[in-house]
Design goal:
- InterPro entries: Alpha-ketoacid_DH_E1_comp (IPR050771), DH_E1 (IPR001017), THDP-binding (IPR029061).
- Keywords: Metal-binding, Mitochondrion, Oxidoreductase, Potassium, Thiamine pyrophosphate, Transit peptide.
- Its EC number is 1.2.4.4.
- The chain has helices at about 1-45, 105-130, 140-150, 165-170, 175-185, 215-230, 250-260, 280, 290-295, 305-325, 350-360, 365-375, 380-405, 420-435; strands spanning about 80-85, 155-160, 205, 235-240, 265-270, 275, 275-280, 300-305, 330-335.
- It is α/β, with parallel strands linked by helices.
- The strands form two sheets. The chain has a seven-stranded parallel sheet with strand order 1-8-9-5-4-2-3, sandwiched between helices. The protein has a two-stranded antiparallel sheet with strand order 6-7.
- The longest helix has about 45 residues, at about 1-45.
- It is globular, with a radius of gyration of 33 Å.
- Residues about 1-15, about 15-35 and about 40-45 have low confidence and may be disordered.
């Protein structure tokens, strides 16, 4: 009962106080409104407001307001131009863009490009003869490999897709190891565990190639961020095709590298076809270079069949990537003359005339040869002699690889754990029991002994 009385009294007191406050507020309200109106009126008279000068304050983008409805058309801006240094006959177009490379350097470019071409032909034929299981050629794209590789430092890290054998060759990877990898013999650095053309070399800072498309793009962004934190004056270059740029990994890698400000060069080989998909079915925008600004990256489109243009663009991108800690996107326009791989027949989706045009009229090797011939650095005799010598060198490495034994089967169970786990031990024992039981089907004499 007492509690009810106290509650009733408190309610009446609260009501009286609220009524008093409301009355006081009611008396002051007209005066406050009048004063506020006077201040607003004074501000308007002193600082007239012009809405046309108002700027957006959104944190997500910087732009101006407009008062008319208009969607941005993809073809309003003309296509990004293609940077080149020499024309198809090897003539320097703008002398200020000539990299002024020495005769020895240019000859090295040419010899590496033609050696790669020779190796491609021999290994391609070896797959057709059933000697190796798979192969991918680099026909038509040699200029993108050698031009970019020459512009890098040996300590820079390379993430390849699967068509960058020339980059590894320029860095000094020997023919014997190329052959060993494709033949999966005992000399293979990967111990026979990868399918052909999936090269890798820790000593040359070339990360082992993996089959899933575009996985190397976000990995390269992470590696570049690590190098930036270590402040080692090193850069990362990541190669991929225009088809791989359609993968989600590409967008993740672009965005991470830009926001984390990584010293990274994204190098897109736009060779016209992603397996059997032409570019007009791959994307609707202006190629791959046009995507760079959307992610906040500096971009350039270069003639991938002009080894000097590729060299200049990569060298400048590398310099600025390290000095400014930011990513760059290079789109090298080229053409895949060969089939996508030995599992592909490109005649099903493109004409022979189209392929012949790029092979005969606009090939990076012939363009560089024109340049050297005009300077008296190369002759027909030099060409015949070098072709004969390079083929002999490749064939000798090829024959050595064929004679070499396969890796010991025990290596299937190593390099995962420091010590063999019980589960792996049981699998190994089971494998050997199976091989012994059906030894007529397993030529163990072709494998190295333990």
């Amino acid at each position: 009962m007492a509690a009810v009385v106290v509650s009733s009294m408190m309610g009446k007191m609260y009501g009286l106080c609220f009524h008093a406050v409301r009355q006081t507020a009611g008396l002051k309200a007209p005066w406050l409104l009048h004063r506020r109106a006077f201040r607003i009126s004074a501000v308007h008279r002193q600082q007239p407001f012009d809405s046309s000068l108002e700027k957006p304050q959104f944190p997500g983008a910087s732009a101006d307001f407009v008062d008319h409805l208009e969607f941005i058309q993809p073809n309003v801006i003309s296509g990004i131009p293609v940077y080149r240094v020499m024309d198809r006959q090897g003539n320097i177009i703008n002398p200020s863009q000539d990299p002024q490379l020495s005769k020895e350097t240019v000859l090295n470019f040419y010899q590496k490009m033609t050696m790669l071409n020779t190796m491609d032909r021999i290994l391609y034929e070896s797959q057709r003869q059933g000697r190796i299981s798979f192969y991918m050629t680099n026909y038509g794209e040699e200029g993108t490999h050698i031009g970019s590789a020459a512009a890098l430092e040996p300590t820079d890290m390379v993430f390849g897709q699967y068509r960058e054998a020339g980059v590894l060759m320029y860095r000094g990877f020997p023919l014997d190891l190329f052959m060993a990898q494709c033949y999966a013999n005992a000399d293979d650095l990967g111990k026979g565990r990868q399918m052909p053309v999936h090269y890798g070399c820790k000593d040359l800072n070339f990360v082992t190639i993996s089959s899933p498309l575009a996985t190397q793009i976000p990995q390269a962004a992470g590696a570049a961020y690590a190098l930036k934190r270590e402040n080692l004056n090193r850069a990362v270059i990541c190669y991929f095709g225009e088809g791989a740029a359609s993968e989600g990994d590409a967008h993740a890698g672009f965005n991470f590298s830009a926001t984390l400000e990584c010293p990274l060069i994204f190098f897109c080989r736009n060779n016209g076809y992603a397996i059997s998909t032409p570019t007009n079915e791959q994307y609707r925008g202006d190629g791959i270079a046009a995507r760079g600004p959307g992610y906040g990256m500096l971009s350039i489109r270069v003639d991938g069949n002009d080894v000097f243009a590729v060299y200049n663009a990569t060298k400048e991108a590398r310099r600025r990537a390290v000095a400014e800690n930011q990513p760059f996107l290079i789109e090298a326009m080229t053409y895949r003359i060969g089939h996508h791989s030995t599992s592909d027949d490109s005649s099903a989706y493109r004409s022979v005339d189209e392929v012949n045009y790029w092979d005969k009229q606009d090939h990076p090797i012939s363009r560089l040869r024109h340049y050297m011939t005009a300077r008296g650095w190369w002759s027909e005799d030099d060409e015949r002699s070098w072709r004969k010598q390079s083929r002999k060198t490749v064939m000798e490495a090829f024959e050595r690889a064929e004679r070499r034994l396969k890796p010991n089967p025990e290596l299937l169970f190593t390099d995962v754990y420091q010590e063999m786990t019980p589960g792996l031990s049981r699998q190994r024992d089971s494998m050997w029991r199976h091989v012994q039981q059906y030894k007529e089907h397993y030529p163990v004499d072709q494998y190295e002994k333990q």
